[in-house]
Amino acid sequence: MIEAMFSGLVQVFEWPTFGFMLMGIAIGYVVGLLPGLGGLPSLALMLPFTYTMEPIAAIALLLGAQAVFSTTGDVTSVLFGVPGEAASAAVILDGHAMAKKGEAGRALGAALFSSLVGAVFGALVLAASIPIVQPLVLSLGTPELFMLAVLGITFIASVSGRSVIKGIVMGGLGLLLSTVGMDPQQGVLRYTFGQPYLHSGLSLAVIAVGLFAIPELLELGVRRSSIAKPGFGKTSGALEGIKDTLRHWGLVLRCSAIGALIGILPGLGSGVGQWLAYGHAVQSSPNKERFGTGAVEGILGPGAANNSTTGGSLLLTISFGVPGGSHMALLLGAFLILGLVPGRDMLSTHLDLTFSMVWVIVIANIITVGLSLLFIDQLARITFVKSTLLIPFILLLIYLGGFATHNMIADLVAVVVFGILGTLMVWLDWPRPPLILGLVLGDLAERYFHICIARYGWTWLLRPGVIIIIILIIVALLYPLWHRRWGPAST
Q1: Which domain holds residue 77?
Q2: How far apart (Å, rounded) are the C-alpha atoms in residues 298 and 245?
Q3: How many domains does the chain have?
Q4: Helix (H) or strand (E) run with residue 309 in it
Q5: In Å, what is the CA distance from 365 to each residue of 21, 141, 308, 332?
Q6: pTM of the model
Q7: Which of 106, 399, 458, 470 could serve as 236's disulfide partner, Cβ 3.0–4.6 Å?
Q8: What's the pLDDT tens digit per position in 323-339?
Q9: Cα–Cα distance between 349 and 355 in angstroms, integer?
Q10: Helix or strand run (H / E) with residue 453
């Protein structure tokens, strides 16, 4: 394994492999900065160009882009309150709030450095887990996956702000929205109201852009100033954000572990991992009321989990040919096109190629974060540009991102609709994160539940793994209530 590890490193730095990796990084950087454009269509467009390439070069191109989508998506989320990637939405809550206070540099430093830590952590998990991954993944069945989705839903209470009841209502709305479209079990349409656009369901990217970006844009227009409110002085530097990452190293590592674990579980992906990490950051903090107003921990948690998911997802894809998410499904297709069969061969005959993927993830993120930190002060100064100059540019990004999701005018209408909903929620002080969390987990929970009932009846409730997760759910539900009544804040 040591020989394969060094062989993989050498292959990454050989030409033209290194050049293709740099090309992938450049594509990933630009795509991550454009709100809503998404890495999935970009990978799909890149896939045909890999047909005649050497396997290592093709992997460097695709994985180099995949490794940095989320990292640069955090930049747009912090600066403009617009998710560069749907998986970067959680960073908006506290990252953009810090930008409004003139702390965009610090927020970007925290987001970028925690992303780097998460990426390296995920890559190490991939490398270290290769010998032991098989029994771990095979021990989890559909019942355990369903209960893990339910466990994620219980985090709604953590991201509900001051009112748990409002959070539960919004989480329920998110669950309801996840049922729009084709019923995967019975093949019938639900809640489409005769609109063909709704047949495939609602897009998470469209909802996230509308829900978070439009209200911020309207507020900026009403204020008629810059993103950072006057009177906050100069931007805080990236160095302070890096220090925050080191100060909260325990939280960063725990959230990196959450992201890696979610990546290993089929079909969950970074969209789930970042919200679970955010919920954990809230629950583990003694000052929960700071979250949503500019708590740096609210950036560090999802930032780390976002990137560590890649290593976990890749581990599952390489070992069993089971894609951990839609991005990995495209990478799996690329593997098969290149003649690489996931499973035994990838862990023995092509072990050096497997380790080269680990190195690509690490090196791509080091290059991306390094370049971003060099220009971070220039990026942070954007928050002090007058709104009259920024609003047209941000509006263009919003609609470009919305339209690029499916290349349909109806997506732009959906952005406006959810933008109006998001604005009303802000005015009436209703939390937006629970809606996104319910939308992300609703589809997974429904799918796994139907499989559980069809295969096991109700006996799956007696499985040891399910019982353990039920206990964790009860603890997660009761802890906030206990903390409000008997915790330190109550005394």
Answers
A1: 2-490
A2: 11
A3: 1
A4: helix 297-320
A5: 11, 33, 11, 21
A6: 0.63
A7: 106
A8: 555 566 667 667 767 77
A9: 12
A10: helix 433-456
